[in-house]
Amino acid sequence: MSVKEQARIVGAEELSRLIGISQRVVKKISLAKGEPDWLLRFRLEALGFFSKMPLPDWGADLSRLTLSRIVSYLKTTPGSVRAWDQVPKSIRTTFERLGVPEAERKFLAGVGAQFESESVYQRLNEDLVNQGVTFCSLDEAVKLYPQVVKDYLGTIVSSSDNKFAALNSALWSGGSFVYVPDDVEVELPVQAYFRINSKNFGQFERTLIIAEPRARVHYIEGCTAPTYSEQSIHAAVVEVVAKESSKIRYTTIQNWSNNVYNLVTKRALAQKGSTVEWIDGNIGSMVTMKYPCVILAGKGARADILSLAVAGQGQEQDAGAKVIHLAPNTSANIVSKSISRDGGIATYRGLVKVEKEALGSKVSVNCDALLLDNYSKANTWPDIQVKNNRTSLAHEATVGQIDSDKIFYLMSRGISEIEAISLIVNGFIDDFSKELPMEYAVELNRLIQLEMEGSVG
């Protein structure tokens, strides 16, 4: 019996909502999508890794995380469409409030939107399509470009890498596939929006980005969810391949609600002369564990990682960066900013590894933490391993409290205390904000101001 015939046997109603993590659930997801046998085997192998791995005993507190009754797959629409007015009205309204169609018209080359487990909308400018650029959901890519997906899936982040990478590999649904041919520059960003709209839900999108030699692309990811009393989990995997002399920038602004565990694995492979940039903003969630990584595998490859973590009441932001130097004359620049308020905990956790062969490497790490009160926390846990004596490395970390004299000065000029704090905070994160497109920098400043008022989430 073929996969398609098996899929028809499984009732559509049963497939629309699956609970728990089991072999039965994994098989039903694969059958529902009409996947090839190799992908089902990939999922089942990952499930085996997940079952054997314990929860991490380091990092953020995961002791309250329960996965047995999580909604692991939820389909709310028949499929993805390329016309906005074809998206169901209730879902369309949600994304319109986030500014999706307006953003697409003004300054994006392409937009994808995922609601729960599936992509609901995907569109790329026709000029880029004619140049051979592909931007679609990874589910669609499995059908349109099966050999490309098979060649790369799990090669940068293996299913056995960690418990949550294994979980994603078993249950993944949706996400993005971006392919840019040789010498093509995508001048405007492409963006994907990910929305969790249900309680006790697990979102497991997977993203694969491939830039051929001398290609350039900027991918932006936005994430939101409403607040429920029950916990939800977001466990994504991102795999990025930057081939010779290409450049990939990956920007994330996530504003999950404070009931979400955000447990993400993001990793890039940078070949000779290429550049990978992670611009990573974490404002929401109950717990975040995320450490964007670049493997500098080719001579002269470069990594730039700029991160921001804002931890408020009941939040633990455990974020940072990893760079692994495998080739000569590679370079990395890591800048981490964190803000803690109302008892929040912000932690920078980083790894810099320079192998023996990576002669002439240059590394700079700068971690700055700002505390807005006396009972919040900021931690810095760097792990630096250098295996040759021809590497230039600098590491700097600072922790400070907000300057009451500056607040007093601003208030004496007629500015309210909240506005004064927001101005100081915006100055502190200026290095991060200036790397965003203008519209996103404005939105980030608005979110920061709301956060200072205790209104986000």
Keywords summarizing the entry:
457 residues, alpha/beta, 2 domains, 27% helix, globular, 24 strands
Number of strands: 24
Shape: globular
The total count of helices amounts to: 14
End-to-end distance: 48 Å
Low-confidence stretches: 1-14
**Strand proportion:** 35-45%
Mean pLDDT: 85
| Largest sheet, strands/sense/barrel | 12 strands, mixed
Bin the helical content: 25-40%
Number of folding domains? 2
The value of Rg in angstroms is 22 Å
Which structural category do the helix and sheet elements fall into? alpha/beta
Provide an overview of this structure.
Helix 11 crosses helix 12 (417-428). The chain has 457 residues and is an alpha/beta fold. The chain has helices at 3-9, 12-15, 23-32, 37-52, 89-97, 100-107, 126-130, 138-144, 146-152, 163-171, 404-412, 417-428, 430-433, 438-452; strands at 17-19, 71-74, 110-115, 118-124, 134-136, 177-180, 190-195, 202-203, 206-211, 216-224, 232-234, 237-242, 247-255, 260-270, 275-282, 287-290, 293-296, 302-311, 316-325, 331-340, 345-354, 362-371, 377-386, 392-401. Strand 3 and strand 4 (118-124) form a beta hairpin. The strands form 3 sheets. Strands 5, 6, 8, 9, 11, 12, 14, 16, 17, 19, 21 and 23 form a 12-stranded mixed beta sheet that branches.
Summarize the structure.
This protein is an alpha/beta fold.
Write the layout of secondary structure elements.
Elements: H1 3-9, H2 12-15, E1 17-19, H3 23-32, H4 37-52, E2 71-74, H5 89-97, H6 100-107, E3 110-115, E4 118-124, H7 126-130, E5 134-136, H8 138-144, H9 146-152, H10 163-171, E6 177-180, E7 190-195, E8 202-203, E9 206-211, E10 216-224, E11 232-234, E12 237-242, E13 247-255, E14 260-270, E15 275-282, E16 287-290, E17 293-296, E18 302-311, E19 316-325, E20 331-340, E21 345-354, E22 362-371, E23 377-386, E24 392-401, H11 404-412, H12 417-428, H13 430-433, H14 438-452
Parallel strand pairs: 3-7, 6-9, 7-10, 8-11, 9-12, 10-13, 11-14, 12-14, 13-15, 14-16, 14-17, 15-18, 16-19, 17-19, 18-20, 19-21, 20-22, 21-23, 22-24
Antiparallel strand pairs: 1-2, 3-4, 5-6
Helix pairs in contact: 3-4, 4-10, 8-9, 11-12, 12-14
